[in-house]
Amino acid sequence: AGFHGALTCMAHRNDYPQGTTRASFAAGIATERREVFCKHDKKTISDVSIASSHSFTRNGSQGAVCTASFTDSAEKSPGRVQSQLMIAAASKVYVLTCITEDEDQETAEYEWSTFWGETVRRIQDSFNVPD
Fold first, then answer.
1. What is residue 51's predicted lDDT score, i.e. its pLDDT?
2. Alpha carbon of 59 to those of 67, 103, 128: distances in Å?
3. How many CB atoms lie within 10 A of CB 52?
4. Which of its termini does the chain have fewer beta carbons within 10 Å around, N or C?
């Protein structure tokens, strides 16, 4: 989509990190440690601001959402708001990442708050994974 900046959403199914059980991953995202998924360690990323994060249970699986804004100087449209939903399902971690991008961070934040944020929340609310 793209008349208020651009929105891209991607879904991934990943193995649990090596040495991490479902229970320990779920316990981590049930707390503020979920905000680690909002952090970035690329040298081109700056001004990371965590907008919100929360945990939830869906169909018996622990989930969490973390949303942050930042500037990525390596991108054509460096202003970003990224919202990441994670669900610790029985055999895999399911991740839905949605990114709003525009000419600068302030513009991307404005578009998130006035247009894309509600759209992404509806997408996240409808995101279901197998048991």
1. 93
2. 22, 39, 8
3. 12
4. C
As a dihedral over the C-alpha atoms of residue 38, residue 40, residue 44, residue 46, rounded to 10 degrees, the angle is 50
Give 37: exposed, middle or buried? Use CB within 10 Å, 0-12, 13-18, 19+. Answer: buried
The angle subtended at Cα 34 by Cα 67 and Cα 43, nearest 5°, is 65
Cα separations (Å) of 2 from 6, 93, 99, 101, 112? 4, 29, 12, 9, 13
Average pLDDT, the chain: 92
Across the range 15-34, mean pLDDT stands at: 94
Name the H helices within the chain: 22-29, 105-111, 117-126
